[in-house]
Design brief:
Elements: E1 24-37, E2 40-52, E3 65-79, E4 82-93, H1 108-111, E5 121-132, E6 136-147, E7 152-165, E8 168-181, E9 185-190
Antiparallel strand pairs: 1-2, 2-3, 3-4, 4-5, 5-6, 6-7, 7-8, 8-9
């Protein structure tokens, strides 16, 4: 296209290119691994982020810093031909926290029936797994997810099994979700 100058404020096009403001994302993380016994493991991580969407402006600078933390406890109860293991996880993420990579798996929003949530998050997860190399495994898990104080509250139960018997394999993947948000309340079952 060719544009012709017709005079100041007389045309219907201004050759303006909007410049993006320079931004900043800094993340610092501290993690630790503690193994008090051969069958017990504790893993913890704390992260602090500083995200400034406009370095030229001090507007909303009080919202730049965010905190996230997680702790995990792994325990082996039986370690013979049959193995019994448990896991307990807790994660807290402030709404201002910004990470370089995604915090949640790709299917997280779909699994929890979520839209994008910009609230403080708390996620508690526990599981128990029984396994045998010859026969297969069975695991049960329960999860609790909260956004804000009343914005979203959900709980999920998971049952997974994989058994082998005379070259026949039995698989189960069961998922029950109960949730309550500001806009809806529901139950979702997936086999």
């Amino acid at each position: 296209k060719i544009f012709e100058f017709v005079g100041q404020n007389l045309g219907n096009y201004e050759p303006i290119i909007q410049l993006k403001a320079p931004n900043l994302l800094e993340v610092i993380a501290l993690n630790g691994h503690f193994k008090p016994s051969e069958k017990t493991e504790i893993v913890a991580e704390v992260a602090l982020s500083n995200r400034d969407l406009n370095l030229f402006s001090p507007l909303d600078d009080h919202q730049n810093k965010g905190l996230a933390s997680k702790i995990q406890w792994n325990q082996t109860w039986i370690d013979k031909s049959w193995k019994l293991k448990s896991k307990l996880n807790y994660r807290m993420v402030q709404k201002q926290f910004a990470s370089v990579e995604k915090l949640n798996p790709i299917e997280f929003n779909r699994d929890w029936n979520l839209e994008t949530m910009n609230q403080n998050q708390q996620f508690l997860k526990g599981s128990l797994a029984l396994s045998n190399q010859k026969w297969g495994n069975l695991s049960y898990g329960i999860e609790k997810l909260t956004f804000g104080s009343q914005f979203y509250d959900g709980s999920r139960q998971l049952l997974q099994s994989n058994f082998n018997w005379n070259k026949i394999q039995f698989n189960t993947d069961y998922n029950l979700l109960n949730f309550n948000s500001l806009s809806e309340k529901g139950t979702f079952i997936r086999w």
